[in-house]
Amino acid sequence: MPFAWVVAGLLLAPHAVAQTEKPSLTWERYIVLVRQYQQDVIDWNQALVLLEDRGRLESAVRNLGSFPLTTKVLKAAVLMHTEAAAKLSAPGDERVRDLQIDVARNILRLVNEQDFSSKWHLAAGYFYQSVLSPGQALHFFDRLREMAHDDVELLLATAMVHETYGAFELSKIPRWTHPNPVFVQNRAEQRLVAETRRQAQQSLRQATEWYSKAIDRVPADAVAYLRRGHCYSLLGQLEQAIADLSRASQLAERPYERGLAELFLGRLYRESENLTASVSHYRRAVRDLSDWQVGYLALSEVLEASGQRAESREALQSSLSVKVQPNDPSGGLWQYYLRMDAFSDIVAELREETVP
Predict the structure, then answer these.
(1) Has residue 35 got a pLDDT over 70?
(2) CA 317, CA 320: separation in Å to the nearest integer?
(3) Do residues 173 and 190 lie in contact, with contact meaning Cβ atoms separated by under 8 Å?
(4) Confidence band of 7 (pLDDT split at 50, 70, 90)
(5) Separation CA 25–CA 216 (nearest Å)
(6) What ranges in the chain are assigned the alpha helix state H?
(7) pLDDT tens digit sequence for 85-144
């Protein structure tokens, strides 16, 4: 069965991804290389050996003699299987998806180019982070670190995995707790909540440690302060959270990052009942995130709580006039740091390098 799955990906993946890409000379050259790889494998009747018995991949290729797998073709094969994995996002596709990544990784061993391999491992880690598989994401980031690749991006990527897992696990807890204090959880539920909270907090503490390493490396990195401040806020360390988020707002060059810092500051001051400060930060947030509904909704609520009803209605009306954006974090603020685009950006860069 694994052989059938991979061969299906081998035959269909280029066609599937080609339908979603804009035609370009780079893309056409890439498809030529991919189809050469396909035809070589099929013509030589080596698909079973190469793809199912992954442990014998390298020796099998060495024994093929005139098998015309050039470095460019191998790189295209790595990218093809990687992109095939990214297309397998439906429930139940996990096993097939992981198999495609395994095939790509085994072919990658034959490429023997440090830069290409480093970028691929980074892309694979980002991919698994985007599908909320923290263990697999950390595996690829750790492997990249073993390859003597330890720049700030890798520090931030590792921290983001811990932050993503911790914040997401914490978001589950309210669904398991009853709003009525009279309701008492049974012991099993209490243990579940306690263990979930413990694991989430452990992940968030690990995230703060990695962000601190990134800040030590680049003291003016607004993103590291933004994310570490968010972790501190979830851990209940409000003074540290406010300090980091304020610093992030000062350092941020992009409105997106500054707006998020102000959004989180507004929430922290709202939770501490400092309505005046909360309103001030939410107003700054909507200036930078004017196409997001979440800032207007939060501002409307805190204005209502402070008795400014006319302004509250105005903010609410503004939220209704904004079209919901794909990256609008109204459904849960933790979503903002899932770097959905990082994987595709790196793969596109690798494709450009393979077929310039």
Answers:
(1) no
(2) 5
(3) no
(4) very low
(5) 43
(6) 2-18, 25-43, 47, 57-62, 71-86, 94-111, 114-130, 134-146, 152-176, 187-217, 222-234, 238-251, 255-271, 275-288, 293-305, 309-320, 340-354
(7) 888 877 788 888 898 898 889 888 888 888 999 999 999 999 998 888 889 999 999 999
pLDDT at 225 exceeding the cut of 90: yes
d(CA 305, CA 283): 15
Single out the residue of 199, 266, 260, 207 nearest to residue 231, CA to CA: 207
Tokens coding 339: 């770097």
Distance CA 135, CA 121 (A): 14
Q: How many C-beta atoms lie closer than 10 Å to residue 219's C-beta?
A: 11
| Tokens, residue 120 | 């691929």
The answer for 197, left when phi > 0, alpha when psi is -120 to 50, beta otherwise, is alpha
Largest CA distance in the chain: 81
CA distances to 49, 155, 303, 310 from 300, in Å: 63, 37, 5, 10
In the structure encoding, which two tokens stand for residue 199, read together? 């694991």
Task: Give the tokens for residue 298.
Answer: 């939060």
Quote the CA–CA distance of 109 and 292 in Å, as a whole number. 44
The DSSP call for residue 21 is: S
Q: 139-145: long-range contacts at Cβ-Cβ below 8 A with a sequence spacing of 24 or more?
A: 144/118
